[in-house]
Amino acid sequence: MKITEWTTLVDEGDYSSSPGFQRVTDDIATAVGEVVWPAGSDKFTIYPESGKKRGMGNGVVPIKRSFAEALQRRGWELERKAPRVESEEQKIIKGSRPGAFDGHLEFAENTPLPFAVEWETGNISSSHRAINRIGLGMRLGYLSGGILIVPSASLAKYLTDRIGNAPELLPYHPLWEAWNFQESGYLGIVTVEHDAESNEVSRIPKGKDGRAEL
Prior knowledge:
Helices cover 29% and strands 23% of the residues. The protein is globular. The protein is of the alpha/beta class. Helix 1 crosses helix 2.
């Protein structure tokens, strides 16, 4: 799989020039490159079938799983839950807690603060929740930044119908670009795409988990 676009929404304190962010970019680029299909291949080839109808198209969770396992091999923790933080925000929404981060990286001596990565497997609402989850972590001071990874329009049409994708998020970029969190922090969106299309490869399997398909 390949990265087709890397969009910076927030880069406070020149975070993108830090050694920590260089580690993040290297790890994400490497992990994306290790997402292949079929298994054992040296590239990601998609079965070119629309996912609009039931039983058609390709699943998404196996793609995320490959990426997450690649990050884990590079020292990231998977499915790390957000900490419980005593704050005015949490008192207002007592009992609520954001979900776990797909990938969570702690730096040596916690400098900078940890960084999170989310890989989109749900619809556009899920994309907004992921951005909010990262933004909340930056505001409350337990993350220094985060990245949401989404498919391009060219890839999304072959995946589960209505999966969150890069073009659908574009109208909200001005809102996120105006967010201010701390003296140093980073928020971005990375767009990924298949390397090739072929009717000779199998579909990526699906399953049911609410609205999510595997």
